[in-house]
Amino acid sequence: MSVPSVVVHRDADVLANAVAARIITRLVDVQSAKGSASIVLTGGTVGIATLAAIAATPARDAVDWRRLDIWWGDERFVPSGDKERNETGAREALLDHVDVNPERVHVMLGPDSGLTAEESAESYAAELRRAARPEDHGPVPGFDVMLLGMGPDAHVASLFPGMPALYDTRAVVAVHGAPKPPPTRISLTLPAIQSSREVWVVAAGEEKSGAVRLALSESGHVQVPASGARGRARTLFLLDRAAASKIPPELGRISSP
Known about the structure:
Radius of gyration: 17 Å
Number of strands: 10
């Protein structure tokens, strides 16, 4: 796994716009090299603001949206179209405004599909297996970039501290009893997250600063799930100044563009 690098921006608005620019550049570079690309989306305030920033810039047209596979790191197990769903937020902020191929938008199914949370997780795992190629060396595609938000408790996706999902070696799991509503969710596991070529953890706000410090330390991933959010080739912690305020100076990996 790669060693994290930290990039700090002035505030949450600048952060969202900077991450949007990074995403566009990354996807264009990958598509130029390979023909197609893949991204894993996240929800949350900054995650959705980032997608809205992509939609708002003319540079979005540099991406061939028809040749992009879109996945999610986690989803609230609520019906399609529900405002609580990460998918709903992503569609409203970006996907409804670009020419995506519907067959390449891979959503986690909700209870209106007739599936249980466990069946939904297995369905998504099967979809990941179908998309994986021999060079991925496993049941999950080597995503070109995975976006992850992070909570004040250092959770990523729907992997909360101390919960059974953090011990699970499957690619996708159902999460019950999540400490923030809704309690039932579907989530990629740490092994699936670590299959990504690049993992970008995006966080803003002083309330995240303690979690950021722990995630960049040697803390164990059972109590600090974000400490296990690492990409194979690259890991970025993209932060605003408030979220970065407790990072020890000895880390020496901080740059402020």
